[in-house]
């Protein structure tokens, strides 16, 4: 060893020599153990001297499962991949189900740091106010008394897309509310659709894997219109009800402010006496339930992929605070037992005709986050976060979610102390014996971190009757006598996959039915495998013959035989038609808060009429904007200047809820501007309110719009000097959202 070669002596830079080596007399000297040469299927052969193969060719890592049975990651064959292990058919899921836990754990940890699902989100602060006394039903803190306000943080999201995907894709939307109560945090983690694709959490990784971009080429993004999703769906009849909702306009909401929310699962309310009542939670927007047109949604995704996020932010900043009613459906175990469907089945609803909605509070979102990452991105919702007065049922999907959500946060947010991140921290004080771990913030004093203890005076002590206590559920004696105590299976009522899908279809208006058929046509047209398209049409025949025939014709195929059913639909269901399932059942309160209205202007515009309409729309809570061919100003007929706030090119038609073509000598000149013509054309095609004064008739006609008074309630044709006076009628038309009467298939304009 030449130590002197390590130093720059007398100004000379050293040249490091090659290290000295010696060949050992026996290779056992270089081994970890002298038994290294004992080969096995696992260890393989002894390491070759002087060789590090690194990973080498990828061939040895490639896996092909053709002809192989499912196994766990430990290689254990999986006999049942459809059901989690439960204590009785309707009993709770057992934590000993290592197959479920391994599958869910791997799924939860697949993507870091983005959420596996619900990655694209928007959040807001606000409050929940109790409006009805339901202390006879629950002792939960938010409902302690009428008028009580509980701070909340709400996160809306898409499910399938990644963080950079567009807002207006066809997808389920998350609607998650975190209540910061004095008795701890309660997370009501729901969606804008009241049912789900699957009945058991065992299948959750499968449905998400199927809808995500296909793994071999990572396409398409934020879209269910591809083979793997429909392959899965066409083999899972239990998903039929959810697919009907997903193909409806519910999956392309106009905004988060006009979107319902649902708790999805059946929960329990528990009162101070320990008595339990079954409950389903609903969030109903005060502005009504409204959707986008599919063609419009696609165009918005290109024009403004942040459309929903921007709408929510701007509405709150502008004081048009989104508001929702919390409504509940309550029913007893005995009532639920008599129904033809099982309330523990997440693919089923409880029709409002069987359990009417009862308004118990309101949710108001009145403050935007200070920092997107610190709040919206780091907020952690867990279905298992409940407070005294709320409890679970044995819904197998909910039981699996209770494990999955906590497991997800442990990885995504860096460890067990994610509850100390400010947005997740409760307003209630935290006292327990948990210590240490990544990112620990609390500095716990004292020497005691166990219970019971005497060195800290027995503190912290268990709360006893004041604390959370699960409902003491008893299995039915008949069930206990006839069923194995542990099994993988589903109750018989879970086998009916069509009755409620038929209920949903029968409850839609003709316009909504047309949109559902169109959605199936689009999605299945993107599917490349003929057998999958055929299988889906076979499933649709079990829902409605007319729908199946329409989709088959649109796909250019003969009508195939219906798919065999596990169980026949209920012959005489409790509810055959439920008007509440239509979006049109909740038009809203008539206000147009936050609606964006384009006032199209050109030189020569009537400043008086423009100003009158602009002021009236502002007064009604809308967001009017002067839209022109170029930025700057236009000259009014009175000789003044009117500012152009945005251009037709930068803010196309799809970004506005309504449009008014303002009167003036320059309006007709816009008929020679292709962008202006397209602007009007799309307003009309998407059935939006459109105001057309006489001088703008040439522009309307260039767009193919026959400007005739009374053509439909959303088309206001009037003299130039009547624009300002027509403001109340225009506001009424905007509140209607759309004039669907003018829609044709294919579009006439």
Automatic annotation (TrEMBL):
GO cellular component: cytosol
Sorted UniProt keywords: Heme, Hydrogen peroxide, Iron, Metal-binding, Oxidoreductase, Peroxidase
Molecular function terms, GO-annotated: catalase activity; heme binding; metal ion binding
EC number(s) per entry: 1.11.1.6
Residue ranges, annotated region (Disordered): 1-60
InterPro entries membership: Catalase, Catalase_AS, Catalase_clade2, Catalase_clade2_helical, Catalase_core, Catalase_haem_BS, Catalase_immune_responsive, Catalase_large_C
Gene3D superfamilies: 1.20.1370.20, 3.40.50.880, Catalase core domain (2.40.180.10)
Residues the record marks as active site: 118, 191
Enzyme class: oxidoreductase
Residue ranges of domain Catalase core in the record: 71-459
Record carries keyword Metal-binding: yes
GO BP, one annotated term: response to oxidative stress
Catalytic function, reaction form: 2 H2O2 = O2 + 2 H2O
Cofactor: heme
Binding residue positions for heme: 115, 155, 204, 401, 405, 412
Annotated function: Decomposes hydrogen peroxide into water and oxygen; serves to protect cells from the toxic effects of hydrogen peroxide.
Family: Belongs to the catalase family. HPII subfamily.
Protein name: Catalase
The species this protein was found in: Sorangium cellulosum (strain So ce56)
């Amino acid at each position: 060893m030449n130590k002197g070669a390590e130093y720059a002596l007398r100004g000379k830079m050293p040249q490091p020599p090659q290290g000295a080596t010696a060949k050992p007399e026996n290779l056992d000297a270089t081994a970890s153990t002298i038994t290294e040469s004992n080969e096995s299927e696992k260890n393989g052969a002894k390491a070759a001297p002087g060789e590090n193969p690194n990973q080498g060719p990828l061939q040895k890592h490639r896996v092909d499962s053709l002809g192989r049975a499912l196994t766990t990651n430990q290689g254990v064959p999986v006999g049942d991949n459809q059901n989690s292990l439960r204590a009785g058919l309707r009993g709770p899921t057992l934590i000993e189900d290592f197959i479920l836990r391994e599958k869910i754990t791997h799924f939860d940890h697949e993507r870091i740091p983005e959420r596996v699902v619900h990655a694209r989100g928007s959040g807001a602060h606000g409050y929940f106010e109790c409006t009805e006394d339901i202390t006879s039903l629950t002792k939960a803190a938010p409902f302690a008394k009428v008028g009580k306000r509980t701070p909340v943080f709400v996160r809306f999201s898409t499910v399938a897309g990644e963080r950079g995907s567009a807002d207006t894709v066809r997808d389920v939307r998350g609607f998650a509310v975190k209540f910061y109560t004095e008795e701890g945090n309660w997370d009501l983690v729901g969606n804008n659709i009241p049912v789900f694709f699957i009945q058991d959490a065992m299948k959750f990784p499968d449905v998400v894997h199927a809808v995500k971009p296909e793994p071999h080429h990572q396409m398409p993004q934020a879209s269910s219109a591809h083979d793997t999703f429909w392959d899965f769906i066409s083999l899972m009849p239990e998903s039929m009800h959810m697919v009907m909702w997903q193909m409806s306009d519910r999956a392309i909401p106009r905004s988060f402010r006009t979107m319902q929310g649902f708790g999805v699962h059946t929960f329990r309310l528990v009162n101070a006496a320990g008595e339990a009542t079954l409950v389903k939670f609903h969030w109903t927007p005060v502005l009504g339930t409204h959707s986008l047109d599919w063609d419009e949604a696609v165009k918005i995704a290109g024009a403004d992929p942040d459309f929903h996020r921007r709408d929510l932010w701007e509405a709150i900043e502008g004081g048009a605070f989104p508001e929702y009613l919390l409504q509940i459906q309550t029913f007893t175990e005995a009532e639920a037992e008599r129904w033809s469907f099982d309330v523990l089945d997440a693919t089923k609803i409880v029709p409002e005709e069987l359990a009417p909605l009862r308004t118990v509070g309101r949710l108001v979102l009145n403050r935007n986050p200070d920092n997107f990452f610190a709040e919206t991105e780091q907020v952690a919702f867990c279905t298992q976060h409940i407070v005294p007065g709320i409890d679970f049922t044995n819904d197998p999907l909910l039981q699996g979610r209770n494990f999955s959500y906590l497991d997800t946060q442990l990885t995504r947010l860096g460890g067990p102390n994610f509850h100390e991140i400010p947005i997740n921290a409760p307003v209630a004080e935290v006292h327990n014996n948990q210590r240490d771990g990544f990112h620990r913030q609390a500095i716990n004093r004292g020497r005691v971190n166990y219970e019971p203890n005497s060195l800290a005076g027995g503190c912290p002590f268990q709360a006893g009757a004041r604390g959370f206590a699960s409902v003491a559920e008893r299995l039915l004696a008949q069930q206990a006598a006839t069923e194995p105590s542990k099994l993988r299976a589903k109750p018989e009522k879970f086998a009916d996959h069509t009755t409620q899908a038929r209920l949903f279809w029968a409850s839609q208006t003709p316009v909504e039915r047309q949109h559902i058929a169109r959605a199936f046509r689009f999605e299945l047209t993107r599917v490349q495998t003929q057998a999958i398209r055929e299988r889906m049409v076979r499933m649709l025949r079990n829902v409605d013959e007319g729908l199946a025939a329409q989709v088959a014709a649109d796909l250019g195929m003969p009508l195939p035989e219906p798919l065999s059913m596990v169980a026949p639909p209920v012959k005489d269901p409790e509810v055959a038609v439920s008007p509440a399932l239509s979006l049109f059942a909740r038009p809203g309160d008539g206000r147009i808060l936050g609606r964006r209205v384009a006032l199209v202007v050109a030189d020569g515009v009537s400043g008086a009429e423009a100003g009158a309409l602009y002021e009236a729309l502002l007064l009604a809570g809308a967001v009017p904007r002067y839209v022109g061919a170029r930025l700057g100003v236009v000259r009014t007929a009175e000789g003044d200047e009117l500012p152009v706030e945005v251009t037709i090119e930068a803010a196309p038609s799809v970004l506005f809820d309504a449009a008014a073509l303002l009167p003036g000598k320059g309006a007709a000149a816009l008929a020679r501007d292709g962008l202006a013509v397209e602007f009007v054309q799309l307003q009309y095609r998407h059935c939006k309110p459109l105001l057309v004064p006489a001088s703008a008739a040439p522009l309307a006609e260039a767009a193919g719009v026959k400007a005739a008074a009374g053509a439909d309630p959303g088309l206001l044709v009037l003299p130039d000097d009547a624009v300002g006076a027509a403001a109340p009628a225009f506001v009424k038309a905007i509140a209607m959202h759309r004039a669907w009467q003018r829609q044709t298939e294919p579009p006439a304009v």
